[in-house]
């Protein structure tokens, strides 16, 4: 079991514990806002399961049917997570709508909030683990899960404030109002997760600053070549693909051209560890007006 899979298993275990604690807090208080917090945790468990399955499948090596690997499975998981977040938001809105017409008395608010706060602390710690490790391991599924948990932590803080204000003012309608605000926050987070994942499924190019670094490396390390053009990049889960045409002198031998390519690939590997780099060598008469000029 690789590190990414271990973290995904950890997410599932943390999600189950947090769900149980938040359901306890809701049962103690009867708060609709705390119920909305618990409903979001149900989504956390479902998305953790999806992330675990995706990470496991994405780690499989390339085969005859998938010669570029199975990396995009993580992106499908992230899209599913976005959809489930939207479903959770709709469930919360339904509960809040009912509570507006049938206000419920909040009982044992401080004890319930303390229990819910303990779950939020655990969520906050695991959110940090997912975001730091997910980015280091370049796992879209783990990063998406971390961003969702971050939204959950923010929502929980808002819920706590809303419940305290509702109890202090004696205005029970403030409780479902806070649940509505939680739902809107969740919807916004779900949209962000889906937008980023769909961009990966559509083979969106690497970010501009990364592309600038790739161009800089090629220009500096391709001594012996004239130019590089038709640079194309894409991200598929944890895998990065880079390809371009490299123009070399027509009289260059195969060994000389290969030496230049090896040098460029080694330099790009330092910038994009684990990337798949494809270089098409061309003679000088194939140079284009626009391209990356070699220093």
TrEMBL record:
Domain Cation efflux protein cytoplasmic as annotated: residue spans: 206-284
Keywords: Cell membrane, Membrane, Transmembrane, Transmembrane helix, Transport
Any GO BP: intracellular zinc ion homeostasis
Alphabetical list of InterPro entries matching this protein: Cation_efflux, Cation_efflux_CTD, Cation_efflux_CTD_sf, Cation_efflux_TM, Cation_efflux_TMD_sf, CDF_Transporter
GO CC field: plasma membrane
Signal sequence, start to end: none
Compartments it resides in: Cell membrane
Domain Cation efflux protein transmembrane, chain residue ranges per copy: 11-202
TM helices/strands, residue ranges: 7-26, 38-55, 75-94, 106-131, 152-170, 176-194
Broad class of where this protein is predominantly found: membrane
Molecular function GO labels: cadmium ion transmembrane transporter activity; ferrous iron transmembrane transporter activity; zinc efflux antiporter activity
Membrane topology: Multi-pass membrane protein
Pfam family, one: ZT_dimer
Keyword Transport applies: yes
UniProt record similarity statement: Belongs to the cation diffusion facilitator (CDF) transporter (TC 2.A.4) family.
Protein's name according to its UniProt entry: Protein p34
Protein's organism: Antarcticimicrobium luteum
